[in-house]
Amino acid sequence: MKLIQCKACDRPISPLAEACPQCGAPNSWRHPLIDAFYVAKDAIGTSRPFTFRSNKTKIWGETKAQAPLRAKLFAALVLVVVGLPAIAIWGIVGAFVAGAMSVVPIIVMGRSEKFSADLDARTWTSSNDVFWRPVKEKLQL
Fold this sequence. Notes:
Blueprint: E1 4-5, E2 12-13, H1 32-40, E3 50-54, E4 58-63, H2 69-90, H3 92-109, E5 114-118, E6 123-126, H4 129-138
Antiparallel strand pairs: 1-2, 3-4, 4-5, 5-6
Helix pairs in contact: 2-3
């Protein structure tokens, strides 16, 4: 990675340095693609909102685990169709089984999606490349 100029003393420093080794001034440099990402973050078209963080050359983010409406409706349907007869037949055990069966779709369909990128090494990892495609394109990876 090429050196940058210290904003305080104009001497060359590593962009990864926390502070200038000559004058001690803090180094606030951040990869230009991360700066562009912060500017354009609201226009990135993902189907769910996400949060992200970054350091000088790395950026990572995730969505909140949120089950879609169809998972919640399916869970309610399972609870009614399976749960009521199970409660009538097996009592408390049936209630437990029905509750567990209705929670499974929400857990499975409500997982969070994650990504991480290292812009210096040009590497990308994600839990769902289709979901994160707009982010990956914005970071030019």
